[in-house]
Each structure stands twice: as C-alpha cells, then as structure tokens.
C-alpha cells in the first residue's frame, strides 16, 4: 500500500500549484481521500476531503474558494489544485486515504513541500 505525492515546490504569492497523489496497493474508490498540511511548529490540519461515495467535497475555511480537490478513481489518483497561494499556505502537504466503512484502514503519503514566498 502506497500513497505518493508530487507537484510541490516554490511559488510566488498569488501563484498556483497542482499536487497529485497516486495510490497503489488498494482500491482508492472505497476510501475518502484528503489532503492535510503541516507547517513548521504547527499541528497537522485537514485541508480538503473528497468522499468515496458521490464525490462531495469539504474544505478548510482558510482555503475555500482557492483550492479544489478532485479524484480519478479509474487512475487511483487524487489532486489538489491550489490557486491564489499565500505565504501562510507554506507547509508539507500530505495525502491521506481513509476507508469509508473500515475506519481502521488509513494510509498516509510521505508528504510534499509547498513553499509560497517572493
């Protein structure tokens, strides 16, 4: 079982980045897929979730209107399109998979760094 994130990097304030997470070893369609982030000295926080059934989404208030989470079950991937980035978005971003029924089945990626700075 593996989640591999990609797409992080350095971007100027106001810029955009797209993060991707590739799942392998399990069928992601049965899992709620989320992005979390953790800034230095802060706790990990939930950024966005796309649920397994129906595909509805939820966002942290701090990213609403700027970030969009999406999933492609056929490709076993989840993405996070980030726009109008702010310095406070700087963090390590983690992909998370949480089974919609068997809640003890939860997986994490290794994280990808996003730095927003001029």
Explain what the structure shows.
By secondary structure, this protein is an all-beta fold. 0% of the residues lie in helices and 53% in strands. Strands 2, 4, 5, 6, 9, 10 and 11 form a 7-stranded mixed sheet that branches. The chain has a 4-stranded antiparallel sheet with strand order 1-3-8-7, with no helix packed on it. The radius of gyration is 13 Å and the shape is globular. The N and C termini lie far apart (37 Å). The relative contact order is 0.32.
What is shown here, in short?
Helices cover 0% and strands 53% of the residues. It is mostly beta strands.
Mean pLDDT level: 95
**N-to-C CA distance:** 37 Å
- Calculate Rg over CA atoms: 13 Å
Low-confidence stretches: none
Structural class from helices and strands?
mainly beta
How many E-type strands?
A: 11
Percent helix range: under 10%
Strand content: over 45%
> What is the 3D form?
globular
Number of helices: 0
Major beta sheet summary:
7 strands, mixed
* Helix-strand topology string: EEEEEEEEEEE
């Amino acid at each position: 079982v593996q989640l591999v994130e990609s797409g992080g990097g350095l971007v100027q304030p106001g810029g955009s980045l797209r993060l991707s997470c590739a799942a392998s070893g399990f069928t992601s369609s049965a899992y709620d897929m989320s992005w979390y982030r953790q800034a230095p000295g802060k706790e990990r926080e939930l950024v966005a979730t796309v649920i397994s059934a129906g595909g509805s989404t939820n966002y942290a208030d701090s990213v609403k209107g700027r970030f969009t989470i999406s999933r492609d079950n056929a490709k076993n991937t989840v993405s996070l399109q980030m726009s109008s980035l702010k310095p406070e978005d700087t963090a390590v971003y983690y992909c998370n998979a949480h089974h919609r029924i068997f809640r003890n089945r939860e997986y994490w990626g290794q994280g990808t760094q996003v730095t927003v700075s001029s």
